[in-house]
Write a structure and sequence with these properties.
Distance between the termini: 52 Å
Radius of gyration: 24 Å
Oligomer: single chain
Helix content: 10-25%
Strand order of the largest sheet: 3-4-5-6-7-8-9-10
Shape: globular
Structural class: alpha/beta
């Protein structure tokens, strides 16, 4: 049986890759410039799925966030029922493996037309990819991106008119680790070739370094590649496996594209540990949900190494632990997927919420501030808010999200002025106009001489979740006001609600700001208690270190 992941990394570098990535920490990757600093080329009128303001949207303008899996159709053409099974588990997208005939038997136009037809029948957005390009430059059997582009042009008549339903992923992982800088020019050329042939579909491009971009070539050249597309309907795909084994690497990479206003999704990712390392899938999924980015897990079934099979033997009734995590776990498909509105599952919502009220600042510390505002209104309902930091020249950086009209922004610098504003959004992805801004200057530092102790306990737990309690005591001689408590979970736990404070979480790192009735902790051992509910996996290790306003507490 052919493996569907046999060429993820070349043998000469397998033992070095994880170590190099850890050493580099991805810190050498170039920072993408803000979108506002670049003039955009003239774009053709978009049809179907397209890119707007750095996001993937449907033809009617509704936000579309991909939640789905990969399916190895070219190696298992008889598994035609898989799309129905994937849909039944809640996915809204499937990425389908095809071959252009360079390395495996080519998928014919009639076969591809059948795949598209089955995707539409099962109300799935269809991402089609040529797998033969995998590891070009290092894998001798790999096809070029130009050859992949020629294959797509041969399918032009099949794909024309399917722009609402189909995304064209030019080639899978189209460059290995040998001279990955060579990825940029062929990628631009392939995009231009498809546009010259009349393709109006959203085009997806995979990163070099076997999709994982650990040397930062795609990150550094994304702006140039995107601006080379005459339509602007191009989305970047990062594949996250063992190179991305820490929360910081994941958040840094995803936020670099979001902050630059460039569209991105996690086109493949794994969770189970292998000989190269242990990917941090919990952070990948949590951050994708927080940033409203798409993700497509690898893969439905049929891997030579079954550790990455979501379904055992293509049986949807026998999900592996990896499959249970993807479909039913925290930030999984079952909890976060929304069907594309093009399938007519409900009334189309194109009305944006009203702008939120002007935010007011409270609980200002050296490193955080709590913002509160008057809620926005919407014809259907507001589902969340994005807090942005407004920089010089009007650039914006998303710094927090919230489902209620309050949020705590953390990670700020002491004695520093900041300007914040808000956007509201609804379930269809419509975004409001920006609120008025508020100016805040952080404090000089934490409470002088503050001393503290923290007691943490699990009150109750159940499969997939638990209730926790934190008691924070002031053991010093001066009252503590407007505090921020920081700690980190080690096993992917995610706080879903809290009383006694407001939690902000990025990956495993948690920052808690007080409620009005817990904002002051008198001296002399008096304490305040915080309670919370959280999602968890199989392991639920308690945090071991806590810091109050940057000063460590006795745990």
């Amino acid at each position: 049986m052919r493996t569907t992941r046999s060429t993820r990394r070349p043998a000469p570098l397998r033992n070095l890759l994880a170590g190099l990535a850890a050493f580099l920490g991805l810190a050498v990757l170039c920072t993408l410039p803000p979108a506002a600093a670049h003039a955009q080329p003239s774009r053709a009128l978009a049809t179907g799925l397209h890119i707007s303001d750095g996001r993937l949207v449907e033809g009617n303008g509704n936000d579309f966030v991909m939640r789905g899996v990969n399916h190895a159709h070219t190696w298992y053409p008889g598994q035609t029922q898989s799309l129905a099974h994937i849909k039944a588990l809640g996915a809204n997208t499937v990425r389908v493996v095809l071959s252009n005939g360079h390395r495996w038997a080519a998928n014919s136009p009639s076969d591809v037309a059948g795949v598209v037809r089955d995707c539409k029948a099962n109300r799935l957005i269809c991402v089609l990819e040529v797998h033969d390009t995998t590891g070009y430059g290092e894998e001798a059997a790999a096809a070029t991106l130009d050859q992949a582009a020629d294959y797509w042009i041969g399918l032009r008549d099949v794909l024309a008119g399917e722009e609402d339903y189909v995304i064209v992923n030019i080639g899978n992982e189209p460059w290995g680790n040998t001279d990955p800088a060579g990825w940029t020019a062929p990628t631009i050329a392939a995009v231009k070739k498809l546009r010259a042939a009349g393709f109006q579909h959203t085009i997806m491009v995979d990163a070099p370094n076997w999709g994982q971009d650990w040397q930062g070539v795609m990150r550094a050249n994304a702006r140039a590649v995107h601006e080379a597309d005459s339509t602007g309907n191009l989305i970047f795909s990062i594949h996250m496996y063992s190179v991305f084994d820490t929360a910081q690497e994941i958040t840094d990479y995803l936020n670099a594209f979001v902050d630059a206003g460039l569209p991105l999704l996690i086109g493949e990712f794994g969770g189970p540990a292998d000989q190269w390392g242990d990917p941090d899938e919990d952070t990948m999924m949590a951050e994708a949900e927080r940033l409203r980015l798409g993700y497509l897990a690898w893969s439905w079934s049929g891997n030579t190494d079954p550790v990455l099979d979501l379904a055992v033997g293509f049986d949807p009734g026998r999900l592996s632990s990896w499959g249970e995590r993807i479909f039913h776990g925290a930030d999984g498909i079952g909890r976060t997927s929304r069907e594309a509105t093009v399938f007519g599952g409900g009334p189309t919502d194109t009305q944006a919420p009203t702008a939120p009220g002007t935010p007011t600042a409270s609980a200002v510390t050296a490193t955080s501030v709590t913002l509160t505002w008057t809620a926005a209104t919407d014809n259907v309902g507001v589902t969340g808010y994005d807090v942005v930091r407004v920089g010089s020249g009007g650039t914006e950086t998303r710094v927090a999200t919230s489902t209620t009209p309050t949020a705590t922004v953390t990670g700020l610098a002491a004695s520093t002025p900041y300007t914040f504003a808000l956007y509201a959004r609804d379930a269809a992805g419509n975004r409001s106009a920006r609120s008025a801004t508020v100016d805040v200057t952080t404090d000089q530092g934490g409470t002088p001489g503050a001393s503290c102790s923290v007691a943490y306990r699990v009150v109750n737990e159940w499969p997939g979740g638990f209730q926790g309690e934190i008691t924070l005591r002031n053991t010093g001689t001066t009252a503590i006001s407007g505090w921020t408590l920081a700690f980190a979970f080690a096993d992917g736990q995610k706080i879903t609600s809290m009383w006694g404070g407001t939690a902000t979480q990025s990956g495993g790192a948690v920052s808690v700001a007080p409620a009005s009735y817990t904002s002051t902790i008198p001296a002399g051992g008096t304490g305040v208690t915080l309670g919370f509910l959280a999602d968890r996996g199989a392991t639920n290790t308690a945090p071991t270190a806590f810091a109050l306003d940057g000063t460590g507490c006795t745990a």
